[in-house]
Write a structure and sequence with these properties.
The complex is a heterotrimer of chains A (79), B (76) and C (79).
Chain A: H1 3-19, H2 24-45, H3 50-78
Chain B: H1 3-22, H2 26-46, H3 50-75
Helix pairs in contact in B: 1-2, 2-3
Chain C: H1 2-20, H2 27-33, H3 35-46, H4 51-78
The chains are: A mainly alpha (79), B mainly alpha (76), C mainly alpha (79).
Amino acid sequence: MIALPLVAVVAVVAALRATFERNTARKLPYVNVLNFAIAASIVLLLDHPLSLVAAAAYFVGSTLEANAIASTYAGARNQ
Amino acid sequence: MIPALEIMFGFIALVGGVSAALILDYYGKLISLGILVAGVIPFIVDRGYLDVAITVSLIAPIATIFVLRVVRRADA
Amino acid sequence: MEATFILGLAILLIGVLAVAFVRPKTYVARLINLEIPGWGLLLVMLAYDETLALLTFIAVTAISTFVIVRLMEWRDESC
């Protein structure tokens, strides 16, 4: 009962910290925290066997997206 | 879903949308777009469309990676 | 249903204003801002129970983004 609002509060705090951070490279850890919280809330929202697959797909996709942004940003900084 | 959770996830989506509209940096815009998608996904799951949620969470990073190719070319 | 519909309309309005009055007046910023009303329209379409329409809309949005990206790359090489 308490797990889902707790995860949602973590997600809101992470989204606010990621939004109001000035440095672009420091935004990415907070975005990772937000993605983990959302992947947990997908599982906790709906009791269905396929929700595990949905959470795994969201986890893989969001991690891939954040890593692609970080890799391109680091490549652009080094040049 | 209880109304407090709807308010929280809707707030995440609104913060992502407004900051994606207002931030001037391209990488910051893409990160804010990720925050917007993270706020939209729980609403899709809550209505029971798990196949739509799987499709969205697999296609949204691909679109971001396509945009990232243009951003790298425009930034360099 | 009502919360999803109103949130979708708000994000759609924010995205349309962001595309119309884009701040760094470049094609890349306009392309990134063009993805915001897509998600708002997805939330509006979620209020009407049509699974196939949602899947088609997501796929066509991704394909049109890919087409515009290819067009921008081709235009930079030809000029």
